[in-house]
Design goal:
Elements lengths: L4 H15 L34 H15 L4 H8 L3 H7 L6
Helix pairs in contact: 2-3, 3-4
Amino acid sequence: FPGNIRELKNVMERALILSGGKPVTSEHLQLFQPGAMPSVPFPPKPADPLPLNIDEAEQELIQRALQETGGNVAEAARLLGVNRSRIYRRFPQMKP
């Protein structure tokens, strides 16, 4: 990676957000030379503020998946490609 660890972390967090909860691919990893302008403009800012770190982003994605699946933990886990135990660790109050 051409930058420092902080820049790498920022690139990874941005890729996570751009992927919208799906697996991160090379198109989400917009690596630029310092000072170079991206060929694709940055997406408009969403109405809701973006999470500040990966933990908050993960929690937000899980909450969205749970809303989309009507609170079905197994279905939300399938949608996110994670185990149900990960959701239960994040939201202990949801344990059966």
